[in-house]
Amino acid sequence: MPRIPRSPASQGPVTLAMVARRAGVSPQTVSNALNSPDLLRPETLERVREAVDEMGYRPSRAAQTLRTRSSKLIGYGIQPSQPGTAAPIMDRFLHALSQAADEAGYRILLFASPPGEPALEGYEELLGQHEVDGFVLSGTARHDPRQAWLAKRGVPFVGFGRMWSGRPVGDWVDVDGASGTDAAVEHLVALGHRRIAFLGWPRGSDVGDDRAAGWQRAMRRHGLPTRARRAQSVDDIEAAHAAVEPLLDAGATAVVAASDTLAMGCYQALRERGAAPGRDIAVVGFDDSPAAALLSPALSSIEQPLEAVGRECLRLLLARMSDSGAPPERVLLAPSLVVRDSVPGTAPGPDGPAAG
């Protein structure tokens, strides 16, 4: 078949009828080629698809919505990053989620969510306008109102983060923070460290408590004391700087932090003492934010598999859209320890490995 020239831009948007005329078929045949290709003979389908490609035809989203009652849009509420924290890491997750959605024929519709506790306003507005087919939630918390609210209305959703309350509401994908901090302690113990401290968030933070539990589990497994080895801070560099001081005073040779932000506070405290991360005290962060590799010395950190989280969230949401009665599915992914200069090859001082 000869190559079909594109319609000049002056003719306006290419329509389904124009494609039908060019391919020598009816408009219904073009519609079938786009939506029910199995109804057509292979040679007819090939002719129509070539006309679609050559003319640059794009189906109307409005027409698709009327026909399928699907907007092909997935809502995601995005919160601003807080001052005093490390560079945000959610861009990696959002890129992976968007890419997976694109491959499935969907688009991610971002809307602003206020900082702090999850709120319903943006979700109510979008549903009121019938603009989305489902939602991806992040920042899930124990008293999060969104899951029950969406479930009551039959709106498909998936959470990046456990629902924590234990109630069987909704599908979720999460990162096993406890296994990450457990692995960090294992690595430090193998290097000879015995005084391994934990700098975490205030108790009651579900994600923070999960990360603290992994540190505590590994310490007990090796018979290492945890008393006076744990401190807490809000996720702020200056606050973490003050909170880590008692741990350093107590002789910690390594600090595992619940975030890269807290680890940066530890860096500041060490430098004020004339000490150096890595040389004098081993430091491990969590999240492997973009800033981790840029610090001097480069920060060892626990990397979340955010690309896999994004893909799994989209998979679960599409499955929920097609089968609303299926039992909830939960996916827990393991993070990995990225070792850099802030963790030297041996423990410093008297807690180093025995000779020979």
From TrEMBL:
This is Transcriptional regulator. It comes from the Bacteria. PANTHER family: HTH-TYPE TRANSCRIPTIONAL REGULATOR GALS (PTHR30146:SF109), LACI-RELATED TRANSCRIPTIONAL REPRESSOR (PTHR30146). InterPro entries: HTH_LacI (IPR000843), LacI/GalR-like_sensor (IPR046335), Lambda_DNA-bd_dom_sf (IPR010982), Peripla_BP_I (IPR028082). Keywords: DNA-binding, Transcription, Transcription regulation. It comes from Streptomyces shenzhenensis. PROSITE patterns: HTH_LACI_2. Residues 14-68 form the HTH lacI-type domain. One of its GO terms (molecular function) is DNA-binding transcription factor activity. The keyword Cell wall biogenesis/degradation does not apply. The keyword S-adenosyl-L-methionine does not apply.
